[in-house]
Structure formats: structure tokens, C-alpha cells
Design brief:
Structural class: alpha+beta
Strand content: 35-45%
Shape: globular
Largest sheet: 4 strands, antiparallel
Length: 77
């Protein structure tokens, strides 16, 4: 039961709007957020959101946007 509760809580630790904005600011298009990312962000980030998009060169890329309350967001590929 505790594991299920932890999964539900962590699944809510995404920031799709902040993530889209961070990726859009890099010039990416067709941005899709894909939920919580278990890996890719340090423990000092509160929100971990997977994404896929088309980069300015027209290539499909995916990564994670890591956001913190006072840190802003970082995009990682």
C-alpha cells in the first residue's frame, strides 16, 4: 500500500507548463510532456518531467526538464 501511495505522489511531481516553457525557450517545436521521470534529475529538484520535441535543426529529441522552487528549470538530454 505504501509503495502504491509513493507512486501516486511521485507521479504528481511534474510541471508540464514550466517544462513546455523551458523547452520552447530553446526554440523547440511540437513539445509533448510525458509524465514523471524517475531518472535524470538531482534530488534537489522538486519536479521531473519527461518530454519529446523537434529541435531547431528538425531532429526528434527527448529528455527531462528538472525544476526547483527557487532554482528555475534545467533541460537535460
Amino acid at each position: 500500500m505504501r509503495l502504491l501511495l509513493a507512486l501516486v505522489v511521485l507521479g504528481g511531481c511534474t510541471a508540464p507548463d514550466w517544462s513546455r516553457e523551458a523547452v520552447d525557450n530553446l526554440g523547440f517545436k511540437e513539445i509533448k510532456t510525458e509524465g514523471y521521470s524517475w531518472f535524470g534529475c538531482g534530488e534537489d529538484y522538486a519536479f521531473h518531467t519527461k518530454f519529446s520535441a523537434i529541435n531547431p535543426n528538425g531532429k526528434h529529441v527527448s529528455g527531462v526538464v528538472c525544476c526547483g522552487w527557487l532554482k528555475g528549470c534545467s533541460v537535460k538530454f
